[in-house]
Specification:
The protein has helices at 65-76, 91-97, 119-126, 142-154, 164-169, 174-178, 189-196, 200-205, 207-218, 253-266, 271-293, 300-305, 307-315, 320-326, and strands at residues 13-14, 31-33, 53-57, 81-85, 102-103, 131-134, 159-161, 183-185, 221-224, 230-232, 238-240, 330-331. It is α/β, with parallel strands linked by helices.
Length: 332
């Protein structure tokens, strides 16, 4: 299931050799493939508020793409209402590409990031949301990093923390542990290394154990991004995601993931299932883009653009070509 072994393997077959079912159906088995979960049907009488209202706190003067990809991916994956709290000077430029986003312009620091002056208003708005996403392109400005820590501590709704938001919390991970509402962290290997104080090489060689320990310690859901991303839960369950391809290793891809996860929650999945489903759909969208365009040159925009088709095919139960790819192992 992991690279480099997976890249050297053909189809993997598992055959029954008379082990009693109790040995492989027990709750003590913590690791499995992220098989696609079924989405609830869209309410035929629904309005935009019924499909998820999410606030994205994101963006800084050097990062126009991250807030755009995160906020618009919620809508492209089926979510209903996307609000973006970004520095005020950025809003007109992002709106040129994502006019469907509702903007909440923010006061800025001298470096063009979100000022801590916005804290009270952001908390008030957060209380009206179904979920909050914190961190894409937020910058490493000291004032904004402090704002991220204070918001993470005080936001009472489910919170997805990505990118620079994770970096901010690495200085005080007790904030995550002490949160009452659900927390989702989406680190890549470098961010996971900063969170755990363990080297990237050691994490890469021992992903499962380190992910299990960290998710349990922080009482958080953690998506460890990479080839065959891992989804870890506080109860030590780990799901290995089989969708996705090397063409998705590109700037902005993780920002699309944040909005996709949020969309799955808005569409009615329980939050634990929404994380799994969001990771799968994100990779599936990238696979559809690669099928049509090839892996070289795929951008975050391509992943974003293929989200509606990924959702359509998923609701129609995929086709046999893709279903065969994502089973991971064939049981005979």
């Amino acid at each position: 299931m992991f690279f480099p072994g997976y890249g050297l393997c053909g189809k993997l077959y598992v055959t029954h050799i008379s082990f009693p079912p109790s040995m492989y159906n027990t709750d003590s088995m913590k690791i499995e493939i992220n098989h696609p979960l079924r989405l609830p049907p869209r309410d035929q009488d629904g309005h935009k508020g019924d499909f998820g209202e999410v606030l994205f706190i994101a963006g800084a003067s050097s990062y126009f793409g991250a807030p755009y990809y995160a906020a618009l991916s919620l809508l492209k994956a089926g979510g209903g209402y996307s609000r973006l709290a970004a520095p005020g000077s950025m809003a007109p430029f992002i709106a040129n590409k994502g006019s469907e986003i509702v903007f909440v312009p923010q006061k800025e620091t001298g470096s063009g990031s979100i000022s801590i002056e916005n804290k009270d208003a952001l908390l008030e708005l957060s209380d009206k949301m179904d979920m909050v996403v914190l961190g894409p392109g937020l910058s490493l400005d000291e004032e904004t990093q402090q704002l991220a820590r204070e918001l993470a501590r005080d936001i009472s709704k489910p919170l997805l923390i990505d990118g620079d938001g994770i970096t901010a919390l690495c200085e005080d991970l007790e904030i995550v542990t002490e949160r009452k509402a659900e927390t989702i962290l989406t680190p890549h290997l470098g961010e996971m290394s900063r969170m755990t104080k363990i080297g990237v090489g050691e994490i890469d060689a021992n992903k499962i154990d380190i992910l299990q320990r960290t998710a349990r310690k922080l009482n958080a859901m953690i998506v460890l991004k990479g080839a065959h991303s891992l989804i870890g839960y506080p109860d030590e369950r780990v799901f290995i995601n089989m969708s996705g391809n090397p063409g998705m290793a590109t700037a902005g891809s993780g920002d699309v993931l944040t909005g996709t996860i949020a969309a799955m929650f808005g569409l009615g999945l329980p939050i634990y299932d929404a994380v799994r489903k969001g990771v799968f759909i994100h990779g599936f969208s990238g696979d559809l883009a690669a099928r049509d365009k090839g892996e070289d040159g795929i951008t975050a925009q391509d992943i974003l653009d293929y989200l509606p088709l990924a959702m359509k095919m998923d609701r129609e139960c995929l086709d046999e070509t893709f279903r065969d790819r994502y089973v991971g192992a064939h049981v005979i």
